[in-house]
Amino acid sequence: MVDYLLHIYRKGSKPFQTISDLPEEMALQIMEQLYIEGAVFWERFKEPRSYLSFRKQVELTMRTAFKNKGGKPINEHPIYLIVGRPKWMDIVSDDKTLQTTEILRVPLSMIKRESVSFTYPDSMVSALMAAEQNPDYYEPEYHGKVFTFDEMMDIIEKKGLPGEGWETRMPKHYAHYIEAQVWDRSMLESIG
Questions:
Q1: 176 is in which domain, residue-wise?
Q2: pLDDT single digits (tens) 65-94
């Protein structure tokens, strides 16, 4: 059973930050600085305005779904982490990404169950797949869904982590991991 989360952030910056909290123009400016062509973790910021708009829409949907399942989000926007260290990271990591990222390991035991939700895969990719419903890789039991701590741990116990027992039809270029959304940043203050 996995017992930690990973937080990936840009070298030289402060961990556990979110662009969603910033005024739009400042967020757009930061995303332009974060964008690195050919870097798997930073290419997502290529079109910052559409990225930010979609991200805020997904966050609102996730927060509402999480509350409906009994979650207790404190912050309006979550901090994103990854469950365990997925094989996908080693397969797609490129030199540009490796040279510009830092990774912090967060013990899962530090996170209150009522303050963390999960998606498979990355929340934005999950929402996109649910919207597209491409029969080649759409998995209706997972895509576009928000899971509680207990629900996700039950899935992991039965299926394993993506790429490590849990085989899916996910295209290689999409994030192939379970994302955790921490809705109470105070739990992360003592790390990093």
A1: 4-188
A2: 999 999 999 999 999 999 998 877 777 778
